[in-house]
Amino acid sequence: MYLPLLIVTLLTFTLPSHSSQKPNTLLLPSSHQDETVYCESWRFSVETNDAGSWETVPSRCHSFVQTYMTGPRYQSDTYFAAEPALSFVRSLNVSTDGLDAWVFGVDDTLLSCLSYYELHGFGTEVFNEVSFYEWASIAEAPPIEASWILYQELQLRGFTIFILSGRDEYFRNITEANLLYAGYTDWKRLILRGRSNQGALATEYKSGKRKEIVDKGYRIRGVSGDQWSDLQGNAIAERSFKLPNVMYYIS
């Protein structure tokens, strides 16, 4: 008995006509747009990985990135990345078998490379591997404080820590020395690129190394890294935590 009323009700609604509507368009940021607005939007695109692979920071964002990295914002963002990691760690029941593991990256995850990029345009210059390793050879990169705090908490709670880096095996002694200089100790294993891993994309290389860890019986409860390639791929962690990095991208 309600059918006629339902039909009348439906007939009172009409769909909008598409013939008079303009086609959907995406208004990209203008070259004359305020630099801060443009660069904030660029940073959002980079940090969410919407930008995909990119080579250098836009030249117009040099001052923006400099201010972000050297001011309080970057450090605050690293703490905001570490805080949920700490909350997650404190919520876990850690086994006494020593198989609960956490994986960290090195550059701009445990160690800050800011002093290198201050000399090289804050990411506006194309990355130069030779000059980077010359800088890294000094082995005095400071710790990222938020990561150091998380690292200490993990050790206190009985986690086994693996450090997985895209650095070459040739720099093992230098990397170990810098980690110790920055206050990191007692990791289970520092994994670096060997000859067989040369040429592999970071995602492929790092996920393969995580699989090796899992195959040995470890449970990767968490991963901390500044690159999406630290977190994606196979053998992903129970939880992954992305630290900020607007100076470079590694695929």
Structure summarized in a few sentences:
The chain is built from 9 helices and 5 strands, in the order H-H-H-H-E-H-H-H-E-H-E-H-E-E.
Describe this structure in words.
33% of the residues are buried. This protein has a 5-stranded parallel beta sheet with strand order 3-2-1-4-5, sandwiched between helices. Mean pLDDT is 90; it is low at 1-27. The protein starts with a helix and ends in a 9-residue tail after the last strand. The protein is globular. Helix 3 (62-70) crosses helix 4. The chain has helices at residues 3-11, 35-47, 62-70, 72-91, 114-118, 129-136, 145-156, 172-181, 202-215, and strands at 100-104, 160-168, 189-193, 219-225, 239-242. The chain has 9 helices and 5 strands. It has 251 residues and is α/β, with parallel strands linked by helices.
What's the SSE pattern? HHHHEHHHEHEHEE
> Count of helical segments?
9
Structural class: alpha/beta
Low-confidence stretches: 1-27
Identify the strand order in the major beta sheet. Answer: 3-2-1-4-5
Strand content: 5-15%
Profile the largest sheet: 5 strands, parallel
Number of strands: 5
Shape: globular
Mean pLDDT: 90
**What level of helicity do the residues show?**
25-40%
End-to-end gap: 64 Å
> Radius of gyration over alpha carbons?
23 Å
Keywords:
251 residues, 5-stranded parallel beta sheet, single chain, alpha/beta, disordered N terminus, 5 strands
SSE topology:
Elements: H1 3-11, H2 35-47, H3 62-70, H4 72-91, E1 100-104, H5 114-118, H6 129-136, H7 145-156, E2 160-168, H8 172-181, E3 189-193, H9 202-215, E4 219-225, E5 239-242
Parallel strand pairs: 1-2, 1-4, 2-3, 4-5
